[in-house]
TrEMBL record:
The modification 3-oxoalanine (Cys) is found at residue 31. This is N-acetylglucosamine-6-sulfatase. It comes from Amphiprion ocellaris (Clown anemonefish). Its cofactor is Ca(2+). Pfam families: Sulfatase. Its main location: other. GO terms for molecular function: glycosaminoglycan binding; metal ion binding; N-acetylglucosamine-6-sulfatase activity. InterPro entries: Alkaline_phosphatase_core_sf, GlcNAc_6-SO4ase, Sulfatase_CS, Sulfatase_N. Keywords: Calcium, Glycoprotein, Hydrolase, Lysosome, Metal-binding, Signal. Belongs to the sulfatase family. Its EC number is 3.1.6.14. The conversion to 3-oxoalanine (also known as C-formylglycine, FGly), of a serine or cysteine residue in prokaryotes and of a cysteine residue in eukaryotes, is critical for catalytic activity. GO terms for biological process: glycosaminoglycan metabolic process.
Amino acid sequence: LVCKTAQTLSSSTGIMNEEPFLSSFTVTPLCCPSRSSILTGRYPHNHEVRNNSLTGNCSSALWQKGPEAEAFPIYLSKQKYQTFFAGKYLNQYGKKEVGDVAHVPPGWDQWHALVGNSQYYNYTLSVNGKAEKHGDSYEKDYLTDLIVNRSLRFLDDRSPQHPFFLMLSPPAPHSPWMAAPQYQKMFSDVQAPRDGSFNKLGKDKHWLLRQPVNPMPNSSINFLDDAYRKRWQTLLSVDDMVEMLVKKLDSMKELDNTYIFYTSDNGYHTGQFSLPIDKRQLYEFDIRIPLMVRGPGIKPNQTLQAPVLNIDLAPTILDISGVNLSTVNVDGQSFLAPSLRNGTARPFFLVEYTGEGHPTTDPACPKLGPGLSQCFPDCVCEDAYNNTYACVRTLDSKNNLQYCEFADSESFVEVYNLTSDPHQLENIVKKVDPTILQAMNQRLIKLQSCVGDSCRPWCCVERILGKFDLLMIFRCFCSKYGAIVVNVINDSFNRVCVPDCFSARFNNVTQ
C-alpha cells in the first residue's frame, strides 16, 4: 500500500476503519491463475488455469465451461445481488477464438471488462457483450477513472430493494505504467528499497535465480527504479478511486452496511536476488499480497496474524451473502468465520506455479536458448518452462517454513526457515533432517491432489463420540485427514485435525 490509500482506509475520521491481514498470500504468483483462484476459491490444480496463455487455460473454452460457470458471482446472483464488474478480468479475455467480447461470464448484471491485458489508453471494453473502443483522452478514456465513474453510476441506478456487489479491477500498477497527467511528476526522488535480498546473489537456488548478473548493472537498477516510481504514480489514481467510493457509500448511508475488500492478485519484485522486475517466483516478495477489509462487525484498527489466502475471498464473500458454504465447491475458507477469529487458522497451505517459455530462442536473449520468457532488461529472464514448482508454506505459532519442489531435470528443492532467515537468503535443504524433508514431501503430495475439504484438513467438525478403540479411530482419521489430536475425558473425546501423521500427539488422555 502506498500514498493516500492506507490513510484513506485508516482515516482518523473513522470513515474507513479497517482490518489489515498481515499474512495474506496468493496461492500462485501470476495474474490469470491468481484471478481465477479469487473467482472460484480454488487452487490452480482444481480450476486448471496454469498461466497467462490460452493454452494454459486463461479464459479458455475449458475455463468458461467449467470453473467460470461455478464462480462466486453466480451464487450472488441467486441471492438476488445486483452485480457489477469493471476493469481487467483475465489476460486472454475477449479473444475471438473463445467468444470474443460477446462472452459475458454468468452472474454479472453490469459488465465493463477490458479485452486482454492491462492498458490505460487505447483499449477495448466489453460492455455487456458489445465492443466499446477507447482512445487516448484522459478525460474520456483513462481506465482507472472510467472504472470508478461507472461504478458510481451503478450505485446511483441500483435498486434499493436488493443488495449489491461491485468488483473493480484497475490496471494500476501494472505495466505500461501510464500515470494520470496530474501525477506524472510525483515521487521523483523515490527508488526501490535496497534492503533484504535486493541485488543479492541467488546462491543455492533454482537455476533461473542463478542466471542474473550480480551485482546488477546500472542499466538494470535504473530500469527497476523507474518502474518502481511509475507504479507508485499510477496507484495515486487508485487512491482517488477508493476515496470516491468510500465517500459515495457514506453519502448513501450505506457505508456501515457494506464490506470493502482491498487486495491484489500477486506480489512483485524490484531487484530482489538481482531479478529486475516481475512476479512468478516462490519467494515472499511475490506470494505475499496486501489485504485490508472494512465492514459490519469488524473492529476498527486491528490486525490479524493468521494466514489468509486469495482462495478465501470467494467463500468469505459468499459467507457474507448468506450462502451455505457446504453447498459450494471451494478449497478456501471464510475468514470472517468465528472459528478464525478465535484462533483456528490454517497451519500450512499450497503455492503452485507452472512456468511459461518461448518454444524458440528469445531475440532479446539468444545466448540462453529456447524455453525462457520475460527476458528484460539486460538479458535477465524471469520465467522458463521448468520454473514450475509447488511449495508447502507452513506458518503458525511455532513454525515459519517453506518447502518447494521444482518439476525439472534436477528435481530441485528449496527449503527456508523464515524465522531466522526472513529474506530467504539461505536454502537449508542440505541441513534439514531427511525425515523432516520426507514428511514435507508427503504433505506436499497431499496438497497437490487435494479438493475441497481435503485442502482444509484442520477444519474438521468437532464431534463427541462414545468409547471406541482409540488406535483404530486414529488410523481411520489419519488416512483421511492427516492426523488427529485426541482428548479423552469422561469416556468421550473431541477430535481436532492437525497437519500430518508424523506430527500427531495424544494429549491429556485419561481412561
